[in-house]
Design a protein that fits this description.
The protein has about 290 residues and is an alpha/beta fold. It folds into 2 domains: about 210 residues, Metallo-beta-lactamase, Chain A, CATH 3.60.15.10; about 60 residues, no CATH class. Helix content is about 40%, strand content about 20%. It has a 7-stranded mixed sheet. The longest helix has 21 residues. It is globular.
Length: about 290
Amino acid sequence: MERVLENIYLVDTLKYVEPGTISAYVIELEKAVVVDPGTVKGANILLEELEKAGIKDKLEYIANTHIHIDHAGGSCVLVKHTNAKVIVHPKGAKHVINPTKLWESSKVVLGELAEVYGKPEPIDENRVISAEDGQKFDLGGDVLTAYYAPGHAPHMLAYHLEKSKVLFPDDAVGLYFEGSIFPTTPPPFDMEQALNTIERLMKLDFEYVAFAHFGITEEKEILKQAYDKIVMWGELAEKVVREGGNINDLISRILEADGDARRLKDKFKDRPIAMGFIQVAAAGLFDYAKKKV
């Protein structure tokens, strides 16, 4: 567990499979919170770290940005071993209570990778909080506010730790690796909602941005960069569709036009999980463009 800010720690929940790809954040105040516990299998790493740090017994909330199994799958593990309640978007609540459909759709989208992440188990509905837009959670010393953040997924939340001025936007903004941003736009992707979400988040008072993929930055302008990239990539997708191209053509166009994307591809070449993010992002943009064109 790496301390990244006062009272905030990063845990690499995929460190034994593909290090530096998926992280969870632990906020330790009077009440402790885990933001995105990661995969089912990765949550065991997180639980071990919480125990070592003496935080496990004060864990109050498991704050999920969305229900995709690389982010929220591990909630079921933490619920078994703590008294924490799970915060989710109302549209995602039924899928953590009964994850059957979530698991089946995850296998379709992720293939064998779904098994690497692990199958989520049901969570008792009494342990699930369906967050309202703007709902505040008093942690004692700071307040965590949940905001609806659709675009990447309709069941997306972003969190803002108000006094510490930390934004946890997660896939609503994208992947962040070594100063480069890479939008995450899986199908079914809604560009208008995604852009509106980023505009809304940019208005919040924050000094730090914490990404599950991967790490924390003081580059506040990273949100504007993500916005501009989504617009640019969307325009490229429309051109490819009009020309009768396919998803691979779109990936080639993105790599030609975006130096950050090229750098990330080079960085990901020996990391199949991270490489998969590129394919999924292109698929969402391509499907969106087909509907628009």
